[in-house]
Design goal:
A 5-stranded mixed beta sheet has the order 3-2-1-4-5, sandwiched between helices. Helices cover 46% and strands 17% of the residues. The radius of gyration is 20 Å and the shape is globular. It has 2 domains: 1-33, no CATH class; 35-216, Nucleotidyltransferase, domain 5 (2-Layer Sandwich). The protein contains 11 helices and 5 strands.
Length: 217
Amino acid sequence: MFVDWLFEASYLRSFLGLPHIPHFTTLQKFTHRINNSLLEKIISSFIVISGTKHIFVGIDSTGFKITHASQYYTERIGLRRKYAKLSIGADVLQQIICNIRIRRAPTRHDNVDFRPIVTRISDILPLSVVTADKGYDSENNHQMVRDGLHAFSTIPARYEHVPIWRTYGKYRKQMKRGYSKLLYNQRNKDETIVSVIKRLFGEHLMSRLTRTQNSEL
């Protein structure tokens, strides 16, 4: 799709200095060869050149189907559908993805990806706010963001029926007493980003090997 677009984007070809449009297999070979850590640095650099001073982080996760078999077929033959879990940390004000984590076991709890994502994003630029849904509710997450990174965390506490005096943790009790819905609702832009990705590229992975699937994600 990108190569087809280059036919129309003459201004971009001129800026890149492309004497001719490369064959689409050039990009495919590139994805096979590029190191994932280098690709991560390239992606995270977009937030730097955007000119923002502090990152307003929103965290969310989604699943991508590894197989192209239909749901009817998998249910008919009793095949378990396989997914790759993608967790993203994005600057919700700029709607730019800053860091991702990929897991092959989608049944594992999303909370394990919170610390590595937030820590890596804080290495790019200082953080202002970190917001996530109840799946990331943890006093340790609040402490890392507020005490360690000196940012503000908005993560609603689970188990709303549990009274405040029985809720563990100072910051989780604060969430029970109330939090800014304006800040928390910015997290919805993570879902917008995921929606755009799936509408453009679909929710199936084209690659077959684990390494190339990770590069594709």
